[in-house]
Amino acid sequence: MTKPYPKTPLYPIKTNSPHQARVIRAPIWIWTSGTGGVMTPHGTPKVLNQYYDPRIHVEPCRAKQIDTRSPAEHVANIRDVFAISMSDLASVLGVTRPTVYAWLAGQEPKGEAVIRIQQLSRAADKFHQANIIRLDKLVNRPILNGRSLLDILRTDEDPVEALATIKAIADKEAQTRREPKSVGKHLRSLDDVLGESSVAIYERS
Question: Considering Cα of 138, then 141, then 144, then 147, what sign does the dihedral take?
Fold first, then answer.
């Protein structure tokens, strides 16, 4: 049996109008879907507490970061992170050295060159974030199944796929350099270092 709604008192109020107006003074009722009834504002916190779960953490939506770098900054980023010469940079981008110099000076690349530059610059960002020790000493070495990182940069392959392997080799060599020379590991060949490192990604199934 449902309880009847409380009676709402009606009080006359004085106005300048010749006609008397009546205002309804009643408690605020909130209709809650699926409850079959109403809920007062005083009871709302109690109901919400019943559904509170401390394991659920709601974070505000973060605005997507927009890359505002210019083409010249992207080109410089590729050159600086991978520590390659202007000739190698030109070959990676598939243009001539004068074109690269023009881009660095502020000339806008055209067509697919813009997409290519942005893709390589984003890849350079990930290599930079990985903090690879002495990447400049690894970029030309054939440590990726007989190919170098520079070889991959010249192709349409994603250089980020080689990041984990290069990072492992760089860390291993850095550890070897920190070991006392009496250990004798500083004289090991590149093949020895690669043998102890992770299998190259191109050899994985």
Answer: positive
Count up the domains in the chain and report the number: 2
Name the CA dihedral angle for 74, 79, 85, 88, rounded to a multiple of 10 degrees.
-60
Same domain, 113 and 159: no
Q: Please tell me whether residue 174 adopts helix, strand or coil conformation.
A: helix
Contact yes or no for 41/28 (Cβ under 8 A): yes
With a cut of 70, say whether residue 116 has pLDDT above it. Answer: yes
* Listed residues 96, 129, 162: the one ending a domain: 129
For the question of whether the overall pTM of this predicted structure is more than 0.70, the answer is no
User: First-to-last CA distance in the chain?
Assistant: 70
What three-state secondary structure class fits 39?
strand
CA atoms within 13 A on the CB side of 97: 5
